[in-house]
Amino acid sequence: MSTRLTEADTRFREWMHKNLDHAAAHFKLTVTGRPLLGWLDRSISAPAQGMWLRVVSEDRQWTEGEFWTGNLEANAFTTLSKPRVVDVFEWEHGRHQRAELMTLLPGAPCSPTDVLRRTADLPDEWWTELRGTSESVAAMPTTRVNADQALVTGRIQQQFGSAVNPVVRQWETVHGDLHWANLMGPGFGLLDWESWGRGPAGTDAATLLSHSLLVPQTAERVRDTFADVLATDAGLLAQFYVAARLLHRADRGAHPDLVAPLRKHVDCL
């Protein structure tokens, strides 16, 4: 069975590369860099003649949610250092494909994976812009939803039972996926706005902290940058929620090396 799964994965990846080529041809561009597959291979991206081209593939039933238009709707953030979607192309081929042509940010992702595993050597200005970006996102009015009370309650109760009160009393707009593979350096930039929307206050600070726990020096810098956010009741609940969310993913085989630090972090809370 494992061999068949591997063959299926290989065929699907080859198909995703063909989807990227199809999108490039539509936009009359040439892929100029190595394509990168996203989470669970559901997306593929690459530089294309000074732009960034991303193709996401889903079954039609999953294309009605807000994540499908998140990157485009994030164009509302006109002053932040982030990609801007300049064109969109959708087509049907077995599944539904959406290609997004975006501006290309300078620099490189701070980590090849969402969890940081080596010290992030970044200038003070980078951290200042990170905090400012977080504040700008939090203040943006939107009807988009990143997480609702039912999701927060479910994740927390699944991992911690009744030990944590899951009721969210403060909501704000969040990026929703603030981890190290979505952050650019040495100049600040923030990628992947697919899931932004309303969520528990402090979600972004808690998310970045949780993804930094394997590198204590960087985790401490995150704590310093968001000290006033993380210390509030809302920030504490956000940390429980994010830890529960990551432990849920770990139950399915993701980032096993993060489990022990997450458990220790939760015990400290």
Would you write up a description of this structure?
The chain is globular. The longest helix is centred in the first third of the chain and has 25 residues, at 2-26. The mean pLDDT is 95. Strands 1-2-3-5-4 form a five-stranded antiparallel β-sheet, covered by helices on one side. With 269 residues, it is an alpha+beta fold. 40% of the residues lie in helices and 18% in strands. 38% of the residues are buried. The protein folds into two domains: 2-103, Phosphorylase Kinase, domain 1; 108-268, Aminoglycoside 3'-phosphotransferase, Chain: A, domain 2 (Alpha-Beta Complex). A hairpin with a 1-residue loop joins strand 4 and strand 5. Helix 5 (203-210) packs antiparallel against helix 6 and helix 5 (203-210) crosses helix 8. The termini are far apart.
Characteristics of this structure?
single chain, about 270 residues, alpha+beta, Phosphorylase Kinase, domain 1, Aminoglycoside 3'-phosphotransferase, Chain: A, domain 2, 2 domains, 5-stranded antiparallel sheet, 3-stranded antiparallel sheet, 9 helices, 10 strands, about 40% helix, globular
